[in-house]
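Possible regression after last week's pipeline update?

I re-ran a chain I had predicted before the update to compare outputs. Posting the input and the new output here so someone can diff against the archived version. Not blocking, just want to make sure nothing changed silently.
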Amino acid sequence: MSSRGPNIAPLSIRNTVRAGRHTLSLTGELDVDSANKLEEAVREVCASGTGLVIDLRKVTFMDSTGLRVLIVAGTLCEEKGHELGIIPGEDIQRILEMTGLDRVLPFTSR
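New output (post-update):
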């Protein structure tokens, strides 16, 4: 059960590949209960040798463990020489701004 209570939206991740680039489209809450799921998916994509986009538009909540995974994704992609793009989400924009990650992570519109 999520730390946010019983009426939560569990995280789902849809992985699509287009033109040799993976897009992980997230829906639901990215928190302590689901961050490992995203980190695992990021590690798999980075191991495959392709670019990565993380689409956060349908994420409704993100805590510090979700932020940590975005930082890990940036580090992994940089180490492997892969391009990373993050599509921000309206519901989590404030936390990205408050932490300064909106100025550090590679955000994109697609």
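Follow-up from reviewer: compared with the archived run. The radius of gyration is 13 Å. Marking as no regression found.
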